[in-house]
Amino acid sequence: MNKAWLVARQEFRQTVSTKAFWIGLLSLPVIICLAVAVPVLLDRTTDARRYAVVDDSGWLLAEIDRSIYQDDLQGLAEDLQRKHRQDREAHDRLPEILRAFGGAWRELDEMHRDGMIQALASAATVDASTFVIARRAELLDWWTRATTEDLDRLHLELSRQRFDRVEVPPGTDTEAALNKAIREGQLFAYFIIGSDPIGRGGGRAKDASQHASRYDSGRSSEYVSNNLTDRELRDWFAAYADACVRRVRLQREGIQPQVADWVQASVSFGERRVDAGGEVAEVATRDKVRQWAPAVFTYLLWIAVFTSAQMLLTSTIEEKSARIMEVLVSSVSPTDLLTGKVIGVAGAGLIVVGSWALCLLVGMLSLAHIVGPAAQGLTQVAADPYLLVAFAVYFLLGYLLYAAYLVGLGSLCTSLKESQNLMWPAMMPLLVALMSMTHISKDPNGTIARVLSFIPPLTPFVMMNRSGGPPPLWEYVATTLLLVLSIWLAVRAAARVFRVGILATGSRPSAREVLRWLLAG
Amino acid sequence: MTGVTCAVHLDGVSKSFGDRPAVCDLSLKIWPGAIYGFLGPNGAGKTTTMRLILGIYLPDSGSVSVLGHEDPRLVRERIGYLPEERGLYPRMRVLDQVAYFGALKGLSDLESRSRAGDLLDKYGLGSCSQLRCQALSKGMAQKVQILATLIHEPDLVILDEPFSGLDPVNRDLMRDVIIGLRERGASVIFSTHITEQAEQICDHVVLIDGGRKLLDGATQQVRAAAGGAVHLEYEGDISMLAGLPDVQRVNDAGRQAEIILAEGGDPQVVLRSLVEHAVTVLAFDLRQPSLHEVFIRSVNRSAAEVSLG
Q1: Is the C-alpha dihedral spanning A9, A14, A16, A20 positive or negative?
Q2: Which of the four pLDDT bands, split at 50, 70 and 90, describes residue B138?
Q3: Across the interface, do B18 and A323 touch by the CB < 8 Å criterion?
């Protein structure tokens, strides 16, 4: 056993000194950082999309502008409140009109706040507060004049930082001028609002052609850009246009907006779950996360088992091709050699997995500040000792089973290329495990999940994935026993093949020869 | 030799791989403090015999006793083995490599590192001790392999084709190492098919072919038993010698030849014949047949027996 320990230590050092190990170790943290940082950076560096609107209807653009203004005010009011609470210094640097707006909004209760915003955005004077009447024009003037530079300086956010509307150039042939602006990159896109957007075709191109004769005498609405893959601006503006047009249609038909909302309201099914005591309980974020956390762990398990077993295969073949095996077996028994190699690589594998888990945990803890309760639930589940222990146990068992196969395989091959052809018996169950992952997360105690649990090469992945269920205790015991039994058989078989295979050189032994080694003992 | 235990004792050992016998009924005794050469053509069973002595293979029948133990695996730590196919971990540092093999042979970490350092210094590799093995030249790597085999000062050293692939400098080093081991009292077994080397340094030769032992004895005795021979250096044509009744065989190398005399053959007859045929004789030396001749003769005899039998 002492020798096995020496081999394990050497194997561990060898593995840790490879580039592949460090790439494996750093890949996940790097991927996570990139996945978080790249979209944020891209978002920050993306310039505001400049667009123009040609409004043939004569009224819709003003309505849309009013809606945008209203939404901006809503966001602004919340931002002002946050600044007022958390960063008084930044708050005090803001223009006086904004501070006054924020102050007036804060004084109101929830319901009146919406009323105030609506009143500010419209010309209505009924029920309007003093602030609205006195300073409506001044606030609108600030909003109209504020440039993106001003906003960045004041750390404020308005929609124009993403989508900035520019005025249509004066002159007779506006569209030609706009087309030129798009070609020269000064403009991202422009919209044409048809003359009768309220008509049944909504002024849209497709419907307009069908109903033009009856409802829409004017031209259709259009979106013109030379970048048709980025639909963000189009969708954003269309949503405002839709909302405005619908509002007008409801008015025309004499339907109260509240009635329309009520007609469209869907039946809501609140989610409840049956807890361990058989009682119906509220569904917390934590429960939702718990249902899906095993899938994440299963992915991690899959990658960990796959990479570790692969490391072992590579090291066995390297030793064989570097002609070191014979010196080793003159000093160490093949069983000690096999044991040492498997333990050494498992150690390196555990370090990789451990670092990933740590990285995920740190990531989630730091996210908890930003995302709030959802991430907290996630952290609680991720730090759940039950899941962590299950993960460690299934990693070791799964790794041992695949390691036994791959180390036996490694001892038969003289090059990595040769081994690729014989990888499929290991790859098949791994692929099945991967493909069944989503289904099992959804139905952890279904027939398929239960049947797959009893196939030893799939057991670690399937059972890990089912822990959200969770399966009955007897299934845990039975599948684990079956798995341990198959590991025992696999390791014995691997040891037999290994003992003869490591010294075999030249052509790869035939299947019949390998079978004879297995049976010979 | 009563009272002295054999370093290795094989008794009626056989080993087959599938239907192919590799070693048949081989019996052999190897005494301490002597150098044994295993001679034989490729595929004769030399490596299998060595692996049986090392306990890498277990015999199908017969018994193997090494350094007084029935199971060679129990004395692994007292054996040094340099296989024919030898390599080093490419990314490992030289010192770590030698020390690792020492540790596998039972030395403590501290001792194996200190011995490895000393050995590397002694053989002029001290400056390379922190290099990775992949950075070594072939000759240096060969030296490191030899040191890794001997770091634990084994009582029995088994070297499989130790001279193959060595440059002349390392060949001399290997020869000195083998002779040094004998002086230290260790038994050395090495296999080779280069008979000149065996002739130079072996106390004892064992000739193996087809998995069977053909010959086993002290080098001098084996050569003496093979009869008389003439070492000839010449210019001219000596093809007529083959027809002389006094000559059994001629190993002609162009300008040198070994003339094996028939039993009772007279070297004077040979000399006379050379003079009569106007061959310029530069040297004419009466000697025992070379190990090469003994080797060829034995292998041919064995082949003839097989074809007759």
Answers
A1: negative
A2: confident
A3: no
Size of interface A-B (CB pairs under 8 A): 59
ipTM of this complex: 0.78
Question: In chain B, what residues touch A329 (CB-CB under 8 Å)?
Answer: 56
Contact B81 A330 (CB under 8 A): yes
Nearest-by-Cβ selection for A323 from B73, B76, B86: B86
The string of pLDDT tens digits covering residues A302-346 is: 888 888 888 888 888 888 777 788 888 888 888 888 889 888 988
Distance from CA of A499 to the nearest CA of B (A): 9
Domain coverage including residue B76: 8-88+136-222
Q: Cβ separation of A14 and B92 shorter than 8 Å?
A: yes
Residues found in chain A? 521
Pair B163, B186 in one domain = yes
Q: What is the pLDDT of residue A207?
A: 46
Q: Residue B197 is part of a domain; what is its CATH number?
A: 3.40.50.300
> Out of A6, A322, A505, whose CB is closest to B104?
A6
For residue B76, is it within any domain?
yes
Residue whose token pair is 């193997």: B64
pLDDT of residue B65: 93
A513 to chain B, any CB pair closer than 8 A? The answer is: yes
* pLDDT single digits (tens) B274-283: 889 888 988 8
Gap between the Cα atoms of A77 and A156, Å rounded: 11
Comparing A273-287, A365-379, B128-142, B286-300, the range with the smallest average pLDDT is A365-379
CB of A16 less than 8 A from some CB of B: no
What percentage of chain B reaches a pLDDT higher than 90? 30
Amino acid identity for residue A458 in this structure: L
Same domain, B162 and B283: no
Res. A126: pLDDT tops 70: no
* Whether residue B54 sits in one domain with residue B40: yes
Q: Kindly report the CATH number assigned to the domain that includes residue B282.
A: 3.30.70.100
Is residue B84 domain-shared with residue B232, that is, in the same domain?
no
Greatest Cα-to-Cα distance within chain A, rounded to the nearest angstrom? 99
Chain A residues touching residue B79 (CB < 8 angstroms): 330
Q: Do B210 and B268 belong to one domain?
A: no
- Edge-to-edge strand order for the sheet containing B8-17? B20-30, B8-17, B61-66
The set of residues, in sequence order, having a beta carbon less than 8 Å from that of A493 and lying 6+ positions away, is A404, A408, A518
Inter-chain residue contact B148 with A10, CB threshold 8 Å: no
Amino acid A124: pLDDT: 65
Q: Do A327 and B54 touch (CB under 8 A)?
A: no
B91 and A18 in contact by Cβ < 8 A? yes
Looking at the structure of chain B, the number of domains it has is 2
Question: Nearest C-alpha of chain A: how many angstroms from B308?
Answer: 33
Query: Of the candidates A386, A406, A403, which has an alpha carbon nearest to the alpha carbon of residue A463?
Result: A386
B143 and B277 both lie in a single domain: no
The answer to whether residue A510 neighbours chain B at the CB level (below 8 Å) is no
Identify the residue among A19, A21, A327, A514 best suited for mutation to test binding to B, counting B beta carbons within 10 A and taking the highest: A327
- Chain A's closest residue to B51, CA to CA, is A330
pTM of this prediction?
Answer: 0.69
Is residue B302 assigned to a domain?
A: no
Position A212 scores a pLDDT of: 42
b/e per residue, B136-161, with b = 16+ CB within 10 A? Answer: beeebbbbbbbbbbbbbebbbbbbbb
Residues B254, B208 within the same domain: no
Question: Which token pair is A393?
Answer: 């146990």
- Are B283 and B145 contained in the same domain? no
B292: Cβ contacts below 8 Å, ≥ 6 apart: B195, B196, B199, B251, B258
Which of A17, A326, A333 is opposite residue B85, by nearest beta carbon?
A: A326
**Using CB atoms, which residue from A7, A327, A513 is nearest to B81?**
A327
Candidate from B54, B87, B91 with C-beta closest to A330: B54
pLDDT number for residue A204? 44
Euclidean distance between CA atoms B280 and B283, whole angstroms: 9
- Judged against a pLDDT cut of 50, whether residue A214 lies above it is answered with no
> Which pLDDT does position B13 carry in this prediction?
93
